[in-house]
């Protein structure tokens, strides 16, 4: 049986429960019944992501959720309650959307790959959370939507992550209709990588995570950072930038070791240098 080391006590009261096993850090949303992204939940999740940056034992992060729903997005009850503030909640709304933007960018900019394990409904900022992860694997029962338009609140911030995954027309279809799509459609749209039976979801996500965890974390970090950086550039600038990254990568000890191991038909021994 694999040894499991908890980064912090896995108590039910915590909005995010953590578990570290063989380099894979599992972060589980536990804010029933909807795993809504309240300010407290977003702060807890970002704190765990920030903590993992400096933990060399963490090589891959899996983002999952407890219960029947992956994430219902922002806590609308929490937000509505602040309409009685003197500014009708403006300051609180600004704080909420700012915290959400910081969380999503923390996932994209994180030095470790982040995999979403999606079972149940991911709606609005919940779909944004899935789209912000590097990989997403869903069960056949998972569903997705950006339904803000149905309640007078267009999903403008989820749109940022969604439009960077799905094609423009697919993204606009979700945003304009607010309708729920099934997991197969989400895969067709580019929102998830794979759709698998629920009973195998955790097993398959773990296999993906362990496969990546076996790579040089230095090389994975370099590649992830370069992927998102070049995606924002024009073609010529992207090639020039990526070329510089490859030169630096070639000078890394892990590249020398990996290439040598490939030529010598042996397993590489990573130094993370």
From TrEMBL:
CDD domains: crotonase-like. GO terms for molecular function: enoyl-CoA hydratase activity. Keywords: Fatty acid metabolism, Lipid metabolism, Lyase, Transit peptide. Pfam families: ECH_1. InterPro entries: ClpP/crotonase-like_dom_sf, Enoyl-CoA_hydra/iso, Enoyl-CoA_hydra_C, Mitochondrial_ECH-domain. Gene3D superfamilies: 2-enoyl-CoA Hydratase, Chain A, domain 1, Lyase 2-enoyl-coa Hydratase, Chain A, domain 2. May play a role in fatty acid biosynthesis and insulin sensitivity. Belongs to the enoyl-CoA hydratase/isomerase family. This is Enoyl-CoA hydratase domain-containing protein 3, mitochondrial. It comes from Mesorhizobium ventifaucium.
């Amino acid at each position: 049986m694999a040894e499991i080391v908890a980064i912090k006590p896995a108590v039910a009261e915590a909005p995010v429960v953590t578990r570290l096993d063989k380099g894979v850090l599992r972060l589980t949303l536990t804010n029933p019944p909807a795993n809504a992204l309240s300010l407290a939940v977003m702060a807890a999740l970002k704190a765990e992501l920030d903590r993992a940056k400096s933990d060399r034992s963490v090589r891959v992060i899996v983002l999952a959720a407890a219960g029947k729903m992956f994430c219902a997005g922002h806590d609308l009850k929490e937000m509505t309650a602040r309409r009685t503030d003197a500014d009708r909640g403006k300051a609180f709304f600004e704080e909420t959307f700012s915290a959400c933007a910081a969380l999503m960018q923390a996932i994209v900019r994180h030095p470790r790959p982040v995999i979403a394990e999606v079972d149940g409904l991911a709606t609005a900022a919940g779909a944004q959370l899935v789209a912000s992860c590097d990989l997403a694997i869903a069960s056949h029962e998972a569903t997705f939507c950006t339904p803000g338009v149905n309640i007078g609140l267009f999903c403008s911030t989820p749109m940022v992550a969604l439009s960077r995954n799905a094609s423009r027309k697919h993204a606009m279809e979700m945003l304009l209709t607010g309708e729920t799509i099934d997991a197969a459609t989400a895969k067709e749209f580019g929102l998830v990588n794979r759709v698998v039976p629920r009973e195998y979801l955790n097993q398959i996500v773990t296999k993906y995570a362990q496969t990546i965890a076996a790579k040089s974390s230095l090389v994975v970090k370099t590649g992830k950072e370069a992927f998102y950086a070049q995606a924002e550039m024009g073609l010529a600038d992207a090639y020039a930038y990526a070329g510089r990254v490859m030169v630096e990568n070639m000078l890394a000890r892990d590249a020398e070791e990996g290439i040598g191991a490939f030529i010598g038909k042996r397993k590489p021994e990573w130094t993370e240098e």
